[in-house]
Automatic annotation (TrEMBL):
HTH cro/C1-type domain location: 11-60
GO MF annotation list: DNA binding
Organism: Leuconostoc inhae
Cross-referenced InterPro entries: Cro/C1-type_HTH, Lambda_DNA-bd_dom_sf, TPR-like_helical_dom_sf
Protein's recorded name: Transcriptional regulator, xre family
Gene3D superfamilies: Tetratricopeptide repeat domain
Amino acid sequence: MINVEKFIHTRKRLKMSQMSLCINICTQATLSKFEKHRQVPAVDIMILLCERLGLTLNDIFPIHVTLKTTSNEQVLALAMKALFYQNLVKYHQLMTQVDIDNLLDSEQSTYQLLQYFSLVFFQKNDVKATKLLKKIDVSQFSQLQQLLFYAITIHYYYQQGFFNEAEKIFDDVWRHQKNLMVADRSGFQAAIIYLLAQYQMSLKNYKYAMMLATYGINFTNDSDSTYFLENLFWLLIEAGDIWHNQHFIVNEMINNVRMIAKFHKNESMLNKINQRKKDI
């Protein structure tokens, strides 16, 4: 069995509350579920929680059920979390720590997918993204990785001016996303939903963008995560501006965005909030 008792004992010995242990790692609800034997957090979260307590994964997981991870896998898990939080400084720092020459096939897929996401969506570097596409073997991706890949590709095609191709992929990704039966807490589905919503926002389909953003907010709540949550709220704010929503509603959503962005260290979103203040 997982040695949750050792985890709890160490936390209490260090006089750390659940709330203080969780800061910048996960929600208190996630930690509470783990300590109550109800749910094991994702590997990247467990690594950070254990590090903060001075423990290792081997201290918590018996040898026969230890989460066997390579150093590359651990770095990539943290890099993915940083990218999904849009803490881009930390993401780039972690990606430089990846031992590229010793990547396993599964690690190679994750490494390429993270690069593709960053190049297309955050850096908008279509030249490098095109070169990377020639190396990517989509058949090696898991189902969720494939869906995320195609959700990113919607934006790649849109930025290239291939609007018909982007629209076709959107329809396929949205149909498959709705039919997914997995209980995903890795952030992949939140990323997919956000990319779909942002695409509709780019097309100025504001009602559709708001519907997808609301769907995404409900999903993150159900999956007990905060991946892309500030972005989804921000889409509601931007789309809602078209109908001149009441100020107190907008201000409440902005406060939510600010709080989550600070938690994620999402400087880009914090800059958007500050710019909005200046424009008003």
